[in-house]
Amino acid sequence: MPEPVLAVGGLVPFTTIDFPGRLAAVVFCQGCPWRCTYCHNPHLLPRGAGALSWPEVLAWLETRRGLLDGVVFSGGEPLLQRDLPFALADVRALGFATALHTAGIYPERLAAVLPLVDWVGFDVKAPFADYAPIVGCDGGTAARASLELLLAAGVAHEIRCTVPPQLAAAALGRMDAELAGLGVAHLTRQTCRPRASR
Ligand code: SF4
């Protein structure tokens, strides 16, 4: 079987905050179809080959066995990578737990990887009808479908929202009500920090 093709834009070798309860590395996937006004990884948004090949990442992970216990796939939007299921399987085969950071852009692809992940950090952007001004397209329907899949799967998760300044209090109230209606027990709100100039 051919090696998975994964566009890896970068790697953080050690984190204690991106995968709860785990010492982990973060694999940053290259590419995202959305353009959130506050995205802090704009260099990862264009689609492209990435800086590292998947075999290179896998070879490095081999050297981390016994030192780390988890690997996080972040981005960009990791579900843009069609070979993500194979990469997750590779990581599990090395004995690491797996985590995914996603905005729920691709529900069908999320459904395919849920059996392969131990934890999901799911970003909600706004009330589902109000995604366009935040993400640059009408992504709320896909995001809602993805969130429903995640909640139904019973995979450990955190639902979080980076609250941009343009989201008014009334919209936040609608978002909270929508999420509660779907069964979200807790929403972690993060303050939107101004993007540093590069
Ligand atoms: S979905 Fe995430 S990676 Fe994509 S533009 Fe928005 S914040 Fe950036």
UniProtKB/TrEMBL annotation:
Which Pfam family, any one of them, does this sequence belong to? Answer: Radical_SAM
List the PROSITE patterns hit by this protein, alphabetically: RADICAL_SAM (PS51918)
CDD domains, per the entry: Radical_SAM
Task: Name the UniProt key words of this record, in alphabetical order.
Answer: 4Fe-4S, Iron, Iron-sulfur, Metal-binding, S-adenosyl-L-methionine
* Transmembrane region(s): none
**Gene Ontology MF term list:** 4 iron, 4 sulfur cluster binding; catalytic activity; metal ion binding
Cofactor field: [4Fe-4S] cluster
Cited SUPFAM superfamilies: Radical SAM enzymes (SSF102114)
Q: Which Gene3D superfamilies match?
A: Aldolase class I
Q: What InterPro entries does this protein's entry cite?
A: Aldolase_TIM (IPR013785), NrdG2 (IPR012840), Organic_radical-activating (IPR034457), rSAM (IPR007197), rSAM_sf (IPR058240)
Q: What is this protein called?
A: Uncharacterized protein
Name the source organism. Sterolibacterium denitrificans
